[in-house]
Amino acid sequence: MMSSALLKLFRSTGSYLLAISRHSIFRPHSVRGISIPKTDHERAAAARDLLKAAFGERVITADDPTSRPMVALTTPWSTTCHLPSAAYFQPVSAAEVSTALSIITKTQCKFAVRATGHNPNPGFSSTREDGVIIDLQLLNDKSFDPETGIASLGAGNTWGEVYTWLEGKGRSVMGGRYEEIGVAGFVLGGGMPGFVNLRGMGCDQVRGFEVVLGDGHTVHCSAEVRPDLYRALKGGGSNFGVVTTFYLQTYPLLKTQYTVSLYKPDDYTNIIEASVAAHKEMETDAQAAYFTNVHRDFVAIGQLYADTPEEEPKVFEPFRKLESMMAPVVPKTNGTLSTLAQAIGHRPPKGKRTIFTISTKVDKDLYLAIHQIWQDITATLPPSSDGTDLHYTIQPVTASAARAGRDNGTGGNALGLQEVSQNWCVFTLEYARDGDDAVHQAAMDRLYEQVKKAAEERGLLLDFVCPTFADKRQDVLRGFGEENVGLIKEVAAKYDGEGLFQKLQYGGFLVRDL
Q1: How far is Cα 111 from Cα 105, in angstroms, rounded to an integer?
Q2: Beta strands of 276-351 (E only): which ranges?
Q3: Which residues pair with 393 in a beta bridge?
Q4: Mean pLDDT, 10 residues at a time, the chain of 514 residues
Q5: CA quadruple 53, 54, 56, 60: dihedral positive or negative?
Q6: Which of 155, 222, 306, 417 sits 20 to 30 Å CA-CA off 250?
Q7: What is the CA radius of gyration of the chain?
Q8: Beta 87-89 vs 131-135: how paired, if at all?
């Protein structure tokens, strides 16, 4: 039941909220004599009640266990993705997002924005009970303009939904590699598509954004309109506003050929040599992609090709020469991006997950050193039978991936990619829901420090850290380079002048941490 004071507060600000007028988060903490609560929990309760009064059943709390946000707490991609928040609001329009930001501003409540909640960093798309979540899942509209080839996608869409919908129109888009990955977090974090070397990063496919700014205004940006905001959003994350619609360039239906096979882990030297050799071949074949995913009990190698050739692509010959293959888990298949996403999607048992990433130049000896470090630290962890799986993935990126973002005529992105062959190596630790967080996180911390040191000592470490694979403690924005850091700071100050997204947002790779 909402208190009379809060009801009075809502009524006194109702016309203001619905008008979506400019507001300031540093005006005195009162509205027409009504004091704003002082503690974080009280502010969250005030925001929850105002949201409920405005939007009713689309504001969900922990006492509604059947709602989608509540179900997400018990069945997440990672239990660290979702924390129990004071309230989850599911808007159906940009105007409702604006109203929610006005309520958040007036109550000074902490908040987070969630699309699908795929990021395992606590607080990035979640809050505790001292904050509220703007859950964008219902913003899942889709439309397609056949004249321009541009798809308009609401922020709540997943790539699996988008691929299937577009393929019905004979079109494809360069998006996430797994079905369950959301459009919003992927694009705003740069986004590494399955065929990154073909057309660049996911953010390089964007032709425009619809954004709700901290002052409540909804604006559009593109290479021609607000180009500074447009560029900064391509990798700059949640520093500027809430993106409600993405306008993405599509292409004629992309046919794909792929296979995933398991190899014996004790053949790691030959597997690493094959991975390096295939990467070098990829520099002259932008249609090729692969991943080498190393576990204690097996190594999974995925060979992906953006066409359906009758002959085996030459680029994968180093893998065909390996003699340690145990079994193909995905036989050679001719398909599309949607079938590829279904085939390679990683759906581990329910549990906890922590990640980090390191970007390096391509070097066999470094990879072997990293493997030895990984082996040593893995040996200190509980066995696989206990649900513990520390694995790493070699992800090759060619110089053409960086050039694609620069040369596609859309003003570039904010990532600062170097035009060199590189590996975005991702380390993932998955463990049981009741596992010891301190033990597992300490192992990841040691692994990070030792891998980083090995790359630094060899002069092979790159500054860039891909946001979608990074741990919350990594210095992601600085890795974009001084020029892009300056751009992101300037754009954040210009479009979020009162600092709503820096001061009240729960977490993320934010300007406030620079």
Answers
A1: 10
A2: 288-294, 299-305, 325-335
A3: 293, 426
A4: 35 38 37 66 95 93 70 58 84 97 96 87 88 94 97 97 97 94 95 94 96 97 96 97 98 97 98 98 95 97 97 97 96 97 78 92 98 97 90 96 78 92 97 86 96 98 97 96 98 97 96 94
A5: negative
A6: 417
A7: 23
A8: parallel
CA distance 61 to 47: 12
Biggest CA–CA distance in the chain, Å, is 77
Kindly state the DSSP code that residue 381 receives in the 8-state scheme: S
> Taking the model in full, what pTM does it have?
0.91
Contacts of 140 (CB under 8 A, 6+ apart): 154, 156, 157, 161
Residue 354 contacts residue 120 (beta carbons within 8 Å): yes
Q: At what angle do helices 159-167 and 337-344 cross, to 10 degrees?
A: 150
Contacts of residue 147, defined as CB under 8 A and 6 or more positions apart, other chains included, come to none
Among the listed residues 424, 208, 197, 184, the one whose alpha carbon sits nearest the alpha carbon of residue 304: 197
SS3 at position 134: strand
| Among 28, 398, 471, CA closest to 196 | 398
**Assigned token pair, 477:** 């924005």
